[in-house]
Design a protein that fits this description.
The chain is α/β, with parallel strands linked by helices and about 210 residues long. About 55% of the residues lie in helices and about 10% in strands. It has a five-stranded parallel β-sheet with strand order 2-1-3-4-5, with helices on both faces. Helix 7 links the parallel strand 3 (about 140-145) and strand 4. The chain binds cobalamin.
């Protein structure tokens, strides 16, 4: 399935990709596995864009295919685990300078399905707005999604602002999105980094239960 799905993405064959996903979901394939394959395919499309083989139109089209697949995966991702009520509140956004939101939307959906109350601020969100929302809602978690390197500057500003306002100590800052790494996390001074939505939920829970390893 992996190769065929990737190929359908790279050849911009929307209906073929949707049919493969539908068939596999129907026969019980893990929705997270399908998500991982789509992510890899999108990464390859990104690489081809970088080398000039693909243009912005391919990036836009693949995003549309991914959106359609997300719509098919979501009900399966939601019913994967039972909802629990040990969840908290999260302010979530793609920071200023970055308009990518496909991954963010999936994590938001999965968090909500797990009982988290998520204030989704959308994309291109100025650091001040993110921090204001943390202050306004009293949310203990700030989640930031970044796909392009300039977003690191905004992430850094958001973290500095939290510090300035005396909110840093009581806010768990978790980052994710294709461009983030453990090294970036350390440099930014965030608390956690992952590309895996299930791990993100686990880390947030651990923090809320006072079990986050320091
Ligand atoms: C689709 C896409 C677009 C679409 C976005 C549509 C949308 N609504 O999001 C469009 C066409 C709009 C676009 C625009 C641009 N893009 Co673009 N895009 C991509 C592409 C191909 C796929 C991204 C994607 O959605 N992946 C699938 C999702 C599911 O993966 P994900 O976001 O990583 O999310 C997963 C995890 O990371 C995690 N996660 C996500 N967020 C969070 C947050 C938290 C807290 C946690 C815990 C986890 C988590 O959950 C997901 C689960 O699998 C990437 C290639 C790549 N390597 O990623 C380039 C890429 C990101 N784009 C790139 C560029 C350059 C651009 C443009 C500047 C192009 C241009 N010249 O205009 C503009 C940017 C405009 C801007 N200011 O943001 C570059 C960035 C390079 C860089 N390092 O800075 C990339 C890497 C392509 C490349 N190799 O050159 N893009």
């Amino acid at each position: 399935m992996e190769e065929r799905l990737k190929q359908a993405f790279l050849e911009m064959k929307r209906q073929v990709a949707l049919d493969i996903v539908e068939k596999n979901l129907h026969s019980g394939a893990d929705p997270l596995l399908i998500l991982g394959i789509c992510r890899k395919a999108m990464e390859e499309i990104g690489n081809k864009f970088e080398t000039g083989e693909f243009f912005l139109s391919e990036l836009i089209y693949s995003a549309e295919v991914f959106k359609a697949i997300s719509g098919m995966l979501e009900p399966h991702l939601i019913s994967r685990e039972e909802q629990t009520d040990t969840a908290g509140m999260v302010v979530f956004g793609t920071p200023l300078g970055d308009i990518h939101d496909l991954g963010k939307n999936i994590v938001v959906t999965m968090m909500r399905a797990q009982g988290f109350v998520v204030h989704d601020m959308g994309v291109d969100v100025p650091p001040e707005r993110l921090v204001e929302e943390v202050q306004r809602t009293g949310a203990p978690i700030l989640a930031l999604s970044a796909l392009i390197t300039p977003a690191f500057v905004s992430m850094q500003e958001a973290i500095s602002l939290l510090e300035k306002k005396g909110l840093r100590e009581n806010t768990f800052v978790i980052i994710g999105g294709g461009v983030t790494t453990e090294m970036a996390r350390k440099e930014l001074g965030a608390d956690a980094q992952t590309l895996d939505p299930t791990a993100a939920i686990r880390l947030c829970r651990q923090y809320l239960q006072g079990k986050f390893p320091h």
